[in-house]
C-alpha cells in the first residue's frame, strides 16, 4: 500500500540569480506551480547564404558553407506561470503577492543604488558610463536543464485582489533567451554553465532512439 509520505515531492522550476564573480546565489525564485507547457524555439546560426550571415549570391563559396554553423543556436523559451496567494494558506500575505511580483520585476530593473551611482558619475563629469550589469540569471527545469538566460518578456495579468486591492492571483507570461558562448565572454561563469548545459544535451542525444535505413525504405538508396 502506497502511503502519502512515499509519494515523491515534485521538483519545482525556478530562477536563480548568481554573482558572476563569486558564483554564489544571491536570490532564488521558486515558481509556485510548474508551468503546464513550455514553448521552445531554436534558430540555427548557419554560415550559408540562407542563414544569419545575410550573404547573397549562389557561388561556390556559399555552397561550401551550406552545412557549416557559426555558433550555437539561438534558443528562446516561453511559458506561463501562476501565482496564487490563496494556495499558501499557511503563509500570512498582508500585501498579497506584491513581493513575488516585485521579485520577478526586479529581474529587468536596476536597483535604486545603481541608478544613484550612475547619476553621481554623470554629475562628476564621467565621459563614458558603462551600462548597469545585472546578476547572472539561471533558469532551472530539473537537473537536466540548468542554463544562463536573459529575461526578454514579462507580462503580468492580475486577476484577483483583496479588500485593500493587493493582488492575490496573477498569471505571468515569461520569455527567456538562453545565453550561449556567443553572448558571453569566454571567462564568464555563464559561458561555463552554458557549456555544461550543452554537454548535457549531447549526453542525452547519445541515449536517444536509433533506427536503421530499412525502416525508412532506404536500403541501398544511399550507396555511392
From TrEMBL:
Residues 48-60 have a biased composition (Gly residues). Residues 40-66 are annotated as: Disordered. This is Uncharacterized protein. It comes from Streptomyces antnestii.
Amino acid at each position: 500500500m502506497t502511503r502519502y509520505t512515499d509519494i515523491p515531492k515534485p521538483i519545482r522550476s525556478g530562477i536563480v540569480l548568481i554573482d558572476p564573480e563569486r558564483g554564489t546565489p544571491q536570490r532564488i525564485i521558486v515558481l509556485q506551480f510548474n508551468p503546464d507547457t513550455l514553448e521552445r524555439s531554436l534558430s540555427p546560426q548557419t554560415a550559408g547564404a540562407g542563414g544569419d550571415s545575410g550573404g547573397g549570391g549562389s557561388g561556390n563559396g556559399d555552397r561550401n558553407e551550406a552545412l557549416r554553423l557559426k555558433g550555437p543556436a539561438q534558443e528562446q523559451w516561453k511559458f506561463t506561470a501562476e501565482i496564487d496567494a490563496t494556495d499558501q494558506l499557511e503563509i500570512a500575505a498582508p500585501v498579497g503577492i506584491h513581493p513575488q511580483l516585485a521579485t520577478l520585476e526586479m529581474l529587468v530593473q536596476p536597483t535604486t543604488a545603481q541608478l544613484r551611482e550612475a547619476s553621481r558619475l554623470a554629475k562628476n563629469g564621467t565621459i563614458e558610463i558603462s551600462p548597469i550589469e545585472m546578476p547572472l540569471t539561471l533558469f532551472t527545469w530539473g537537473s537536466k536543464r540548468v542554463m544562463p538566460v536573459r529575461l526578454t518578456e514579462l507580462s503580468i495579468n492580475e486577476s484577483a485582489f483583496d479588500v485593500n486591492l493587493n493582488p492575490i492571483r496573477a498569471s505571468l507570461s515569461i520569455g527567456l533567451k538562453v545565453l550561449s558562448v556567443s553572448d558571453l565572454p569566454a571567462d564568464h561563469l555563464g559561458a561555463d554553465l552554458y557549456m555544461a548545459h550543452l554537454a548535457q544535451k549531447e549526453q542525452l542525444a547519445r541515449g536517444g532512439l536509433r533506427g536503421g535505413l530499412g525502416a525508412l525504405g532506404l536500403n541501398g538508396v544511399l550507396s555511392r
